[in-house]
Every structure is written in C-alpha cells, then in structure tokens.
Fold this sequence. Notes:
Elements: E1 3-7, E2 13-18, E3 26-31, E4 37-39, E5 43-52, E6 61-64, E7 67-76, E8 81-87, E9 94-101, E10 106-115, E11 119-124, E12 131-138
Amino acid sequence: MTGLTQSIPGRDWMRSRPMDDKSNLLQIEQVNSEGVATTNYTADLIASGSSLAAGATSTAVTGIPEGSYGWGLQMTGTTPSLILEYLGPDGSTYITLETATTSGSSYAATIGVVIGANATVRLRNPTGATITAISSSLS
C-alpha cells in the first residue's frame, strides 16, 4: 500500500511504499507535488539474514546523508532488541538514535528516524542472546 504520510510546508512530501525485495518492510521516500521520488538513498546496515551475538555491534556504515529515513528492520530471537546508534560529535562515543524491541520471538517494522549530515551509524544488540535472521536498512 502506498500513501502520503507527511507534509512538510514549502517542501516535498514523504510517502511510504513496500520495499522492492518483498520483505514486508516499508520504504520511506521523498516525493514532489507530482508524486515523483526526489531522493532514494538506501544503506544496508547489516547483510540480510545475518546474526548478531549478545552485546555485539555491526560494522559501522559511514557517510549517511542528512535526512529523514525509514529504518526497516526484521529480526528473530528470544525477545530480540536492536539499537540503532550514531557516532557522536567526539568521534568515539556512539549514541542511541532508536531502539526496536518486542516481547515475542520475531519483529518486523519500519521506524522513522532523522539523521544528521555525513553520519556514521551501526546496530547494537543489547540483549543477552544472539539475534538471528536480521535484515536492516535505512531508506
């Protein structure tokens, strides 16, 4: 299902649409008044189907352009939880941007996040158990 989801006065619209990979996640894209996509930046945060051990972090992704993104995420495990972190201004400390968690054994959602210019982001598993079948991207 596709639809306009946010209007920014004097600017383009944001809309959501299904991801091309049929993963049941939504992709957030910026569109102009004619409904034509004006930006479509996507970054995979971890290889699809990956696992992340308890307390582990993913490899950092650098150079993310400033903007509003949909953090698309799927994961399974024992009450899985993942944290999306960005590298702070000191260049060494990661700061929590958003947390995704569930009381069940699987999770799939798209969460809206705003990221600053030329950002470095990573995922962190804050739980005491391995999270499996992870698929995560910004778009």
